[in-house]
Records
---
Amino acid sequence: MSLLGVENVTKRFGGLLAVDHVSFSVPEGAVFGLIGPNGAGKTTVFNLITGNYELDSGSVSFAGANITGKPTHRIVAMGIARTFQTIRLFSDMSVLENVLAGRHCRMRSGPVSAMLRLKWQRKEEREAIGKALAELRFVGLAAQAENPARNLSYGNQRLLEIARALASDPRLIILDEPAGGMNELETAALVNLIGRIRDRGITVLLIEHDMSLVMKACEQLVVLEYGKKIAEDEPDAVKQDPLVIEAYLGSGDEDF
Amino acid sequence: MKPDADNIRKGAYAAVAVLWILAPLYLDKYWTDVLNNVAIYAALGLSLNIILGYGGMFHMGHAAFFAIGAYTTAIVNTAWGVPVLWLMPFAGIAAGVFAVAVARPIIHLRGDYLLIVTIGMVEIVRIALVNNVFGITGGANGIFGISSPSIFGRQINGVVAPGHYFYLLTVFLGATIILFSLLEHSRFGRALKFTCSDEVAATGSGINAAGYKLAAFVIGAVWAGMTGTLYAAKIGFISPESFSFWESVIMFMIVILGGSGSIPGVLLGAILIIGLPELFQGLQQYRLLIFGIVLVVMMIFRPQGILPPAPRKYPVDKLEKQEVSL
């Protein structure tokens, strides 16, 4: 069954057609990759799905509901969590607090219940911290819970972003170049982590240009070039696709 | 137990609290009244701290909300004789409603732009008061004859018995401190801090950033409005000059100098900015000069304020044990 449906999505920035009638659908439970050379429009597609940008045309549906034009925080509450390509952590706050940000949309206490220190409010707070710690254990950062986020290494900051996204109990997690800045060891651990996320029943949509990671982690790929979809298939088939090879390596008959 | 920094800090706070509560016993009327002013500005600073400290919004028009609370109290009390303490919630609501109306269209503005708009707002309010809008604000002369608060039939007169008024203000300030520290350490306070730290990341994590910013504005305004009631009732007289742009600047400085986002910092800021100049009465004409130099030096060497917020501690050890299924 399709969890996320992207239908004829188009986005223009002035004269630049960043995303041109792109359609694909992500089946529930899959690890789905969106790849393409630099500037192909991958992150723009992400930002269109998560409501960071407004669509010029087309529509996005999630779990049977049309989410086109919905505000980002609503989309997160509906079950789509994301990480950022350029790491965006709350760097002065602790690792644990960063994860609590992701938990926010599953909590409901407001200013009045906080000032009255109601019993359910305290219980909710305790449960949120417990859940946040559990997510930190899941990505392997539990020991750092009380450190400020800015003290983490680059790779660990990426993991923290994943923990923050997972804390919102998403049905779909969108990872935007999670291997960026990671060494080989960390990337291998990331492939493992992505598998464990899928095993929790969470669908993964991965944007990446590290081909080795994509080939190992994904079951299905969509390839973008200049904002257009040029291929959609299983990783092994995509690797053989002449259009894809040309997009990544350039065609053989160029004159120099 | 070894006296670590945390315990020293707690001990110092307790000592200051005891000194504060006993102040009317060892201070004369004049100095007690100075502390009353400190208490009023501390409450104003704490209410601004929600907007400026946690929310990170450069709001330099806080005196407008203070004015609306004070004038609501003064007008209703002098016209219909409603006891002033009953008017406190109404003063708060009036300021809160005004905040919603004003803040909604400007809440998305960033940093310096918001600053300019809020300066405009506080000037418009002051000019409206001077020009006697709707014929109810008394123009430049203000409003006289606001009655003193009474508790169980006992008048608490801020002019005749500042020591009594001191305890009324202390109860209000104490309640403000407790409520706001609960707020700071809640889902609401965290959401504001996330928004202040990185709005895109906060929204991407599922936080309605614009909604929280507006809520912060309203809570800050409601509290400034309620503080306005206690101010109006203290000397029984208010006029537009008590709510000028300069008053907003003072509140802003209290928060920034003391420590943006830190309750102890804001309290210290109020003591230093309202209380300290009284000590230097003799230096009258140099007072502002020294004040200015101190501010410049502070912003260079300690831009986060004198007492910046301490990192939040969570009961991690206690919760580590319990397993949570994912």
---
Amino acid sequence: MHRFANPARFLRMAKVILPYSSGIAVLSLAAGLWFALAASPADYQQGDSVRIMYVHVPSAWMGMFCYVAMAVFSAMALIWKHPLADLLAKATAPVGAAFTFLCLVTGSLWGKPMWGTWWAWDARLTSMLILLFLYLGYMALINAFDDPERGHKAAAILALVGAVNIPVIKWSVDWWNTLHQPASVVKMGGPAIDPSMLVPLLLMALGFKAYWISILILRGRAEIAAQKIRIIRMAQIHAASRGE
Amino acid sequence: MESVSTLVQMGGYGGYVWPAYGISAVVLALVLVASLLAARKNEAELEQLQVVRRAGKQRNAAAQAAVPTDALSVETKE
């Protein structure tokens, strides 16, 4: 893992990967939208409202995936003082927050016609809302200190403590039998949905994953540049105070 | 034309399906634009700082090469 710790190497790899990740994101989202909105059938119970699922479910997966990534990066930063891990954790947070927000909004837009309510204090919905707050807390905390080192450390600890919420989200539908339906794709015995609906779901999920990689590269580059700027400015202040 | 209107109506769920896709597109586009702008801004600022620093170093090196060492030491004392 330490092979990737070097910012120069990250920047070299990022340059190679970015065109591919962006290309895959555009192509699979375009194909995914075609299947999601036109080429897939309406559900026999839900009608065309089922099409909301093709953004809702991949957004939920990404909201959780980004949090796990953020927690793993944070652990690497705390344990091995990995110089890039903090920056990548910080770069992932807004993407995860955006997907979690979209999961909640699209779920609400599906819930109104199907459940008859925009919102319910169901276990799955509530734990997903907590995930959004964890992201917002992380982003507020990491910028709350004058010394970026302290901000990174405090936020990394929050990310790790909050990771307990991830299994709660995953199994909330089994532990508490309230409103939200249980899993139908990632479950024992294989997916319980028709291939005509699985195709748009997986294409959208692939597109979102590639989108995350592209954003991670862009934000990682921004963070690395910001860190170098800070170092140069500190050296300048240091030099000025010595009267050079 | 009929297929367009069926696409818009979404079997009566158009008012829920289209906002879901619209909001998703807007939010993801905003995150993308913000990330692009941040990368571009920080990298341009860093580039500028590095150009200034390199020019400063070259000037110092040129001055040290051109001026005899005793003259330089007088200059720095002032």
